[in-house]
Design a protein that fits this description.
The chain has 235 residues and is an alpha/beta fold. Helix content is 40%, strand content 11%.
Length: 235
C-alpha cells in the first residue's frame, strides 16, 4: 500500500488492508492539447440567464484534462470556488484530492465540474429553475470531453444526471447510464457531506474502489447493475 493510500485511510478512520496482486496504475492521456472547451468557457463567463449572476464573483467553469476518462460532477460552487474560479477548493477540495490520490489520480488527470456555474447565496441548494437554466453548459462539457465514466458527487448532481429523485443511498452501489451516450455513471457522497458526516467515509472508500475497478477493466457489458461487494468485504 502506498503512502498516499495509507494517509487517506487514516483520515477516513479505515483499517488498512493489503492487496496481494496490486493492479497497475491507470494510464491517462496527456492534458496538453488544444483547449476545445474555450468557446463554451467564454459563453459561461458571460452568462446572465438567471439571478445568480448578480451575486457571483466569477463563474466556475471546470478544471482538469479535456481528454479525461473520469469526470466528476458536484452541485455548485461554494465561497472559495467563487473567489478562485475553480471547483472543489478549500477543505472539500483537499478531501477530494485525497480521495483521487487513493485510487491513483491527480486532479489534472480527471475533469471536475459542477451542475451550476455560479454560487447560490449562502451555499443553499440550487433551485430547480437554476438547474434547468444552467445545465445545458454541463451537458455540452460532457459531450466535448466524452469521459469513460461519470461520477456524481452528492444528491443534487446524481438527481440531475439521472433525472430521478431517488435517495442517494438507493442510487449507490449500482452502475447507471447518463444521457443518449449512455455513459456509465457511479454515485457517491459529496466531499463536503463527508466532512460533516465522517461516519460515511468508509462507504465512500468502497465507492472509490469500484470507480477504479470500472476504469481498469473497461468492460463492455451493460452499464446498469449492482456492483460486486469485494471491496466492502475487505473493510
Amino acid at each position: 500500500m502506498n503512502d498516499l493510500h495509507s494517509i487517506y485511510c487514516r483520515e477516513l478512520g479505515i483499517i488498512a488492508w493489503q492487496q496481494r496482486n496490486a493492479e497497475p496504475p491507470i494510464s491517462m492521456p496527456s492534458a496538453h492539447m488544444a483547449d476545445k472547451l474555450a468557446p463554451l468557457r467564454t459563453k459561461v463567463a458571460a452568462c446572465t440567464a438567471c439571478e445568480l449572476h448578480t451575486q457571483r464573483m466569477q463563474t466556475v467553469f471546470g478544471v482538469g484534462s479535456e481528454t479525461a476518462k473520469l469526470m466528476l460532477i458536484g452541485e455548485a460552487p461554494g465561497f472559495h470556488e467563487d473567489q478562485q474560479g475553480e471547483p472543489f477548493v478549500g477543505r472539500a477540495g483537499q478531501l477530494l484530492g485525497s480521495m483521487l490520490k487513493s485510487i491513483g489520480f491527480e486532479r489534472n488527470d480527471v475533469y471536475i465540474a459542477n451542475v451550476l456555474k455560479c454560487r447560490p447565496p449562502n451555499n443553499r441548494d440550487p433551485l430547480p429553475l437554476e438547474v434547468k437554466t444552467c445545465t445545458a453548459f454541463l451537458d455540452q462539457q460532457i459531450a466535448l470531453i466524452q469521459p469513460m465514466l461519470l461520477v456524481a458527487l452528492g444528491r443534487i448532481a446524481a438527481h440531475y444526471l439521472l433525472q430521478t429523485k431517488v435517495p442517494l443511498e438507493t442510487l449507490r452501489n449500482k452502475i447507471h447510464a447518463y444521457g443518449k451516450m449512455q455513459i456509465p455513471l457511479i454515485t457517491t457522497y459529496h466531499p463536503a457531506y463527508l466532512l460533516r458526516n465522517p461516519i460515511d467515509k468508509k462507504k465512500a472508500f468502497f465507492d472509490l474502489q469500484h470507480i477504479k475497478k470500472r476504469l481498469l477493466t473497461q468492460r463492455g457489458d451493460e452499464p446498469h447493475g449492482k456492483l460486486p461487494n469485494t471491496a466492502a468485504e475487505k473493510l
